[in-house]
Amino acid sequence: MAKQETNQTLLLSKFIEGRGLSERYEYEELESFSKGIRLHYYQKESIKNALAFLRFWYKKDSYDSRKSLLEHYQNYDKNLKKQDIARASFWMATGSGKTIIMIKLMDLMLTLMKEEQLPKKPIMLLVPNDKILSQFKENIKRYHKKLEYRELKEYESVKNSLFSEPCIYLARSDLLDSKENVGKDKKAKRLDYENYKNNEGWYILLDEAHRGENANSKRKGYFHELARGEVSEDDFAKGFVLNFSATFEDEIDFLSCAYNYNLAEFNKDGYGKNIAVLNESLDYKNEDNEEDRKRTILESFIIFNAMKKARKKLLSLNVNFTYHNPLIIAVSNKVNTQDAGIRLYFKTILSILQNKVAIQKVALNLYEKLKGQELYFKADKLSEELLEFVKNVNNEELRKNIFYAHENANLECYMVKGNDKEIAFCSKNSNKPFMLLNIANVKEWQKEFLQTLSVETIKDVSKGFFDEINSENSSINIMLGSKVFSEGWDSNRVNLISFINIGSINAKKYVLQTIGRGVRIEPFLNKRKRLSVLKEEMDFKEACLKYAPALETLFIMASDNKAISSIIEGLNVVMRTKPLQGFKKTKILSPLPVPKYKNKASLHQQYKISAKEAEDLREFMQDYDEDVLIVKQCLYEGFKYSTFEEIKKFNEGEKSQIQKSGGNEDKFDAKRTLKIINASLNAKLKEFDKFEDLKDEIKHYKEMQANFSEEEVRKINEMIKSVMRAKSEAELEKEVEEGKISFKEALKQAKLDEVQFKENYTISAKLKEHYYKPLVIYHKDDGKSEINFAITHKSEREFLQDLEKNLQNEAFLKGYKWCFSKLVEKKDEIYIPYFDEREQKERKFYPDFIFWLKKGKSFKILFIDPKGLSYEENAKFKINAFEELFSQILTYNNEKIEVILRYYNKNAQSDFKLKKYTKSSVKELFEEIV
């Protein structure tokens, strides 16, 4: 019977987004964690989704709310019942900081319980092992405020107390068990889950606590039974389960996913390494062929050597880099004496050490193979610099850079006194270990296996190597082991994972867990994004971008087809979207100037306050002595005494930077208002700095993805290639005149520059002047395009249609060289900074389109926004900022340059300023400008 496909639809995410739940509430101090640690935006968003959904679940009319959610679920699966949906899962990549998220979330849940916005219940945090439990305890101590917790077994002594307040209880998930199994536990570590039941249920947070073998399916049932509380079988649960994991297996975890920031999303935002899987074509025709398997191991060493050379080059270009020293982890399901793969690994190392292999031939074949190597999550290839390092390798270089051997050598090993988990290996003519074996029982392995590996001598050392693996001084280049790499161990160093034998049981999950260990990077201290993403933020030479990808790529290798299939299957689970390829840049006009900004020397120093908010603020201030107010209300990071003085001036009717706006709609909230006033008065705004040539500021087309099947994505990519091959009308006219093709054939070919896909999508290369081709257009107004960065808004489509119509007139923009591009908010780096007076903060305005027009020595940049007048007040804020930024005479490469902003909107504007900046047609818009 064929295995049924798991439904990976993220239903709960759609429900939360569709109802705008996460936007309904604001939380104080959502960003702070500890000194030096602030939450990233995705960490804050996951917490907002969690709290928003909990508040939805427990609001006063909760029965109707829950019923609407159940109906939402049952549209997909009619078998889901009331007790199945008191849960939310969070798909968070390894390295995304789940621990920090969960600690912050528990603190905010306790606060909401005190404020009676959530029902009072104990919180249970369950983790898979002692190491992760210790990590949680350490991070709770680092948290910026005191957060009390207890061991779960302590709950039995307080659960019947009338005065107990909600508290956090910690335990290992694998130790919660049935009474029968607890009785068999000689070490008395197991806990009878029945002892922790209570009438009102629990809030249970799981950190990878679903992991384990078949016994865990029962344990999952215990978790939900505890959370449920005392309710009938056909009623909604009283408690709630929040499951945080990097890998999902059960369909319900996908369906109940409240926030997705898995490995693919993590990578798309610039975090972590790109991933390259070698031999994806499954070209092992004879998997028992030892030479083929040995070749794969040799290839891993050649790639690794290239990475070492790239790192050396990077550090010579910038001494401030904190890039890791690369590491191979060679992974086997079981590191035992019968494993032929382990034997072959040692045999291959010896062949290099003893100069018995033709490395150059292997390297040249690998070079040819890698030239076409694709990367997961990104439509890109490997860097030329890395490929050159691969191509130009020799045996001596491998011996020196990986094994620290300056001449032919054998192997010797180090045994660590009092440590039964580690053996280190080194070349006999070197005193630096290059490989570490990390397994459960070293003595047994040594006795049965070491003698067969041509290891000549054994030395004893007093200190182990694993604890120092992340140290800059670690000499270990290869770690060989089993499941020690899949959980509870993290390192920036991993650049290559070689799966020797991963078995068949839970292979997909095991692969993803192991890959998750190797995606972290840190080019600069505390900067965890790839170097290309840090261009605007950090100072480094352009040449560094040629070598950085070598250290920012995680290579995955295996020496059998089954293992590679498991790797690809595992990665495809997180790759909910697949890359679209074949987009090409237009070379009509170059170079193209883009505006750059810098911080103003002076602060903004202005805050507009409504009359009602001003009166409430005055009353609030009068209720406290100055000293008490500062200590009790204003003492948070960044609050300035100068702000406090400005508030006093305003309250006393003196001249102040706080001004009444005249409205009465703002609700007064002491902490929020004080925080916003402080932020506004001390905000550093941007001003125009200079123009620079466009480089990589428009990047969205390189990251276009489609949420379709592999076959459908393949068809789209073929369509992209097809429309790109289509000839222009001028080219076709010339071929007809020269008799190369008939008029009928020309008519047929003229329609090839635009094709339809799936009824609602158009792939079009008609607009030859667009910065890249083709454009992808989605024709429905439901906001549900399955292709990211497609043209989706009706106003954008109307503008492009109007532009196409005008281009049929030969006089349109005659005499100008020009091109234009769509801009994508938060992805592209072309924007207009402005101060949002309503929200009292600086924002970035991303017009939908930018045009460049050149005539002689005169340049014009035109920003056009077709959908920018939904909120008139906000549009005026943008216009005010634009006028201040670009009102002066500007030059670029000694040429005069004019920057223009216009709204494209067919509705008549009554406001004088908006009327001046708004045009209702492309004809009207360009007639005014040119």
Question: Summarize this, please?
Answer:
The protein is 36% helix and 20% strand. The chain has 30 helices and 39 strands.
Report on the architecture of this protein.
The chain is an alpha/beta fold and about 950 residues long. It is about 35% helix and about 20% strand. The protein is built from 30 helices and 39 strands. The strands form 11 sheets. The protein has a 9-stranded mixed β-sheet with strand order 12-20-19-13-18-16-15-14-17. Helix 2 (about 40-55) packs parallel to helix 4 (about 100-115) and helix 11 (about 290-315) crosses helix 15.
Individual helix count? 30
Q: Report the radius of gyration as a whole number of Å.
A: 31 Å
Low-pLDDT residue intervals, each spanning 5 or more residues: 211-215
User: How confident overall, as mean pLDDT?
Assistant: 84
Envelope shape: globular
Tell me the distance between the termini: 69 Å
Structure classification: alpha/beta
Main-sheet strand order equals 12-20-19-13-18-16-15-14-17
Q: Count the strands?
A: 39
Residue share in β-strands: 15-25%
Helix content: 25-40%
Main beta-sheet annotation: 9 strands, mixed
